[in-house]
Structures are given as structure tokens and as C-alpha cells.
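Fill in residues.
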């Protein structure tokens, strides 16, 4: 079973910031890492990913930079993203919000809905 994008929409920024906590990365690698970490249960759409980059950069949570091509003879430069101090702070806020959300929702989620 895959998770609905509607359920997780408010936490896309948190997911992306988590991936950037330990190292700078670029869009495709971030997308791959999200798939890997969720065992393919959540696949972030490319449009969602790049909209999040734009929004988070505008809010000061991440910054982008161009990197030199990795392979010789390749002219394409990649746009990398790195988390800022404001992004780290925002990530911590979203984690606290999630813990509260989880606590509230625990009152309404049956452990075994099949039995009801």
C-alpha cells in the first residue's frame, strides 16, 4: 500500500529538509532517497518537489547553488540544495508539530480497523 499524497502534503518540506540535514543534494537524488527511505511507499512527484524547492528557498529554508559537471565532457551543471539555519529551525518546529498531530490522531485511529 502506498501513502496518499493528500495525507502527507503538509510534510513534504519536512521530508525534503530531513534528506538535506546531512548533505547537500539535487532533485533527482532527493527523490530517490525519499523512495528508498520509505521503501517506495511514498513517491514525491517532480512538480511537487520543485514547487517545494521554490517555496523553501523563498522562505530562506534552503539555498541553491550550481555544481560543476561530475563527468568530464558533460556540460550540464546540476542545481544542488542545502539546508540553512532557518531551515533547521523550521524542521525542528515541524517535528514538534508532527508529534502533537500524532498524539491527537492516536485518539481516532483504531489499532485493528477490520474488527470494527
Amino acid at each position: 500500500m502506498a501513502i496518499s499524497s493528500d495525507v502527507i502534503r503538509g510534510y513534504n518540506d519536512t521530508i525534503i529538509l530531513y534528506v538535506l540535514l546531512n548533505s547537500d543534494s539535487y532533485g533527482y537524488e532527493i527523490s530517490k532517497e525519499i523512495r528508498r527511505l520509505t521503501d517506495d511507499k511514498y513517491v514525491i512527484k517532480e512538480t511537487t518537489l520543485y514547487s517545494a524547492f521554490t517555496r523553501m528557498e523563498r522562505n530562506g529554508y534552503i539555498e541553491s547553488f550550481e555544481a560543476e559537471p561530475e563527468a568530464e565532457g558533460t556540460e550540464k551543471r546540476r542545481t544542488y540544495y542545502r539546508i540553512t539555519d532557518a531551515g533547521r529551525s523550521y524542521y525542528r518546529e515541524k517535528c514538534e508539530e508532527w508529534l502533537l498531530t500524532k498524539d491527537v490522531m492516536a485518539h481516532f485511529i483504531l489499532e485493528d480497523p477490520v474488527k470494527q
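The domain at 5-115 is CATH 1.10.10.10 (Arc Repressor Mutant, subunit A).
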